Amino acid sequence: EAGVAQSPRYKIIEKRQSVAFWCNPISGHATLYWYQQILGQGPKLLIQFQNNGVVDDSQLPKDRFSAERLKGVDSTLKIQPAKLEDSAVYLCASSLEANEKLFFGSGTQLSVL
Amino acid sequence: RKEVEQDPGPFNVPEGATVAFNCTYSNSASQSFFWYRQDCRKEPKLLMSVYSSGNEDGRFTAQLNRASQYISLLIRDSKLSDSATYLCVVKYMGKSTFGDGTTLTVKP
Asked: For B49-97, what is each residue's pLDDT tens digit?
C-alpha cells in the first residue's frame, strides 16, 4: 500500500517570499491533515479536511496560510508571505475516517531566512 | 495548561532496562488514544493504540486511566533501536492533539 506522498522534501526561502507544499494521501482516506512541527515540539494541527470540506482550521494563520483539497484527494498548503517563525517541518497526514489512526508523509522541512 | 502534557525527558537508560512514560490529558471526554514514535528528522509513526483494558505488543504495554486522565507506555528490555521521541496523541470529535513528546535514549 502506498503511503502519504509529500513534496518538496526541503525548501529554503527568504522572508516575504511565498511557498507551496503538496500532499497526496493514502488512497481512500477521507480525512487529510496539515500539521506544523517546530523543533522540540509535537505536531500542531493547522487544518483538517473531511473529503474536500474543511473540518477545523482554527489554528491556521489565515492572513498568510491557505490550503485546499479541491477534489477530495490531494491537497496544497501555501504560505504567503513567509515569516522567519514559519521555519518548521510541515507534515501531511491522512486517516480513513476522522477518529481513526493517522498516517504521516515524510514532511517538508522549511527554512525561512 | 496544555491539552496534552508529557514529561520531555530525556530519559537515558541502559540496554535491557524497563522504562515508563506518562501522558496526561485535560479533556475528560477524549475518545481515543495513541502512542506514536518519531525518530530524529523523520515523520511520526504509529506505535500502538491504547485501549481501556490495556494492551500489549511484544515489549510494549500501553494503559489508559480515564479516572485520572492519563495514559502510559511501558517498554521492557529496552533496545538501542528504541531510542526515539515518543508522542502521546489524544483524539476528541475527530481532532488529534499531540503532546510534545518524551525523548528516550538507550545506551549500551
From this structure: 998 888 999 999 999 999 999 999 999 999 999 999 999 999 998 889 9
- Respond yes or no on whether the N-terminal peptide bond of residue A61 is cis (omega within 30° of 0): no
- Percentage of chain B modeled with pLDDT above 90: 87
Is A84 touching B (CB cutoff 8 A)? no
Q: Mind listing the pLDDT tens digit for each residue in A15-44?
A: 999 999 999 999 999 999 999 999 999 999
Q: Which residues of B touch A41 (CB under 8 A)?
A: 100-101
* Residue in B42, B43, B101 nearest the CB of A42: B101
Distances B102 to A43, A81, B63, B83 between C-alpha atoms, Å: 13, 33, 16, 11
For residue A31, give the nearest of A112, A106, A96, A86 by alpha carbon.
A96
Coil vs helix vs strand at A100: coil
Residue A1 has pLDDT above 70, yes or no: no
Rounded CA-CA distance A90/A69 in Å is 16
Distance between B94 CA and the closest CA of chain A, angstroms: 4
**Residue with C-alpha cell 537515558?**
B12
Task: Say how many residues make up chain A.
Answer: 113
DSSP state of A19: E
User: What's the start-to-end Cα distance of chain B, in Å?
Assistant: 37
C-alpha cell at B70: 492519563
